[in-house]
Every structure is written in structure tokens, then in C-alpha cells.
Known about the structure:
Blueprint: E1 2-7, H1 13-26, E2 33-37, H2 49-57, E3 63-66, H3 76-89, E4 92-95, E5 100-102, H4 110-136
Parallel strand pairs: 1-2, 1-3, 3-4
Antiparallel strand pairs: 4-5
Amino acid sequence: MIYGYVSVMRNRVDDVKSMIIDYANDHRYKIDGIIEDSKSNDANWRTRDIFDLLQNVAKPGDEIIVYEATNIARSKTNIIDAMQLLIEKEITLHFVKYNRQFKPALHIDEDEFIEIIQMIDSDFYSKEAYQRLCSAE
Length: 137
């Protein structure tokens, strides 16, 4: 099964859903369902719908499409935690913004993994800078 996942906090839900659907269509994937998580991205990722999807719903071989890493978790450490669970559960994660996928495997292509981590790091840096600017106002 292929799931779309949308974090509704700080996102224009319809825009994000549309981008996920466009990504799926471009890659010839059929989305079986889209999960809209209403909990804040600031909440621990293990209390949100994304964790329930990974832990209890998705099966080995399933795939999840998200817009970007910051939709999954609130920190880079939490993203690594999520990636570990993806590997354990054998679930592929697609990042629309990066046009990349993280495939679970015993041996992950190091260059590809580093590239994804760099993109994730850049998003978290941007998010943190934006939050600092908003709090300064």
C-alpha cells in the first residue's frame, strides 16, 4: 500500500496534498489513502499519526509519501529515529520536496543517504531560523 501523509500544522493542507498526489502521479504510484495529522509538529513524533502509521498500520513493502522531513518530526534526532523504524519495518519513505526516497536496506548507498541527510539538515536549519525571526518580532 502507498500512503500520503500530511501534517496539517503550518501547512496549506490542500497544497501539500496536491503536491503529494502530483509526485505519485509523476512516478506512477497509486495512493491508497492520505493521512492528515492534526497534531502539531512540535509534539513528539511518537505521539502523532505518523508514528501510528509506521508502527501499527504500514506493513513491510508499503510506502509513505511526505512533502518534507519536517512534516515527520520536530528534530533531526527524531528523523533518524523514524528512519530506524522505517528500516526495521521495511517501509519506503518518499520526500516530495527533495524528489528522493529512503529505501530500507541492510546496505544503504552512503552517498544517497548523505545527500538526503543534507537536505533534511537544510530544512531544519531554515525552520529554526524562521522560528527565531518570528519570536524576535
